[in-house]
From TrEMBL, chain B:
InterPro entries, A to Z: ER_ret_rcpt
Record's signal peptide: none
tRNA processing listed as a keyword: no
Species, as recorded: Cicer arietinum (Chickpea)
Protein name: ER lumen protein-retaining receptor
Length: 10, 215
């Protein structure tokens, strides 16, 4: 899973 | 989403509301740094490039829209509103904020997780957010009488950063492979910049005196 690009924070 | 993250976001939201309240109802932006506000507008514009392409949740999208809308409207008020702009301390707000943008951009080009346009802009926004409060802190130091709303605005911003660190600690222990060095280091730097302010904020609160930062 590409964790890096999963920007779930503001 | 954990409680620290939610509390952090809410504190961030309150800080913006406090500032908008001051500007909109009192029609004053005295003690507020336009330089810092312009940097925040740039931070959000660079970070939320994925707002319409990368859907995470309704909460996420709405908050992004609020931060984008509020930051640009604050800049608009301070620059163009015929009453508000008169209260802007232009002569005191002299920090060369352009000198922060270029180093942050260069650093983002050099140190990033992935060399793509969106990822570099995201990283740039993290570095820039870390230092965006500096013009505001310098202006506070020069302001003789810091009014309550401005003091609370900066306090809430600092609290938001501190809560985000607790959020990362929580996520580190509860989520697998949750390691984001760039986010953490820039976030830590950002929070440390508030340490001095926090010290004097609590001193004034404890002694029931008006907030005043020594030069």
């Amino acid at each position: 899973l590409d964790k890096i690009l999963y920007h779930d924070e503001l | 989403m954990n409680i620290f993250r939610l509390a952090g976001d809410m504190t961030h939201l309150f800080s913006v509301l406090v500032l908008l309240l001051k500007i909109h109802t009192i029609k004053s932006c005295a003690g507020v740094s336009l330089k810092t506000q312009e940097l925040y507008a740039l931070v959000f514009a660079a970070r939320y490039l994925d707002i319409f392409t990368n859907y995470i949740s309704l909460y996420n999208t709405v908050m992004k829209l609020i931060f984008l809308g509020s930051s640009f409207s604050i800049v608009w008020y301070m620059r163009y509103h015929k009453i508000v702009r008169r209260s802007y301390d232009k002569d005191q707000d002299t920090f060369r904020h352009y000198f922060l943008i270029l180093p942050c951009l260069l650093l983002a080009l050099l140190i990033n997780e992935k060399f793509t346009f969106k990822e570099v802009m995201w990283t740039f926004s993290l570095y820039l957010e870390a230092v965006a409060i500096l013009p505001q802190l310098v202006l506070l130091q020069r302001t003789r009488n810091i009014d309550n709303l401005t003091g609370q605005y900066v306090f809430l911003l600092g609290a938001y950063r501190a809560l985000y660190i607790l959020n990362w600690v929580y996520r580190y222990f509860t989520e697998p492979h949750f390691v984001h060095w760039i986010t953490w280091v820039s976030g830590l730097v950002q929070t440390l910049l508030y340490a001095d302010f926090f010290y004097y904020y609590f001193q004034s609160w404890k002694n029931n005196q008006k907030l005043h930062l020594p030069a």
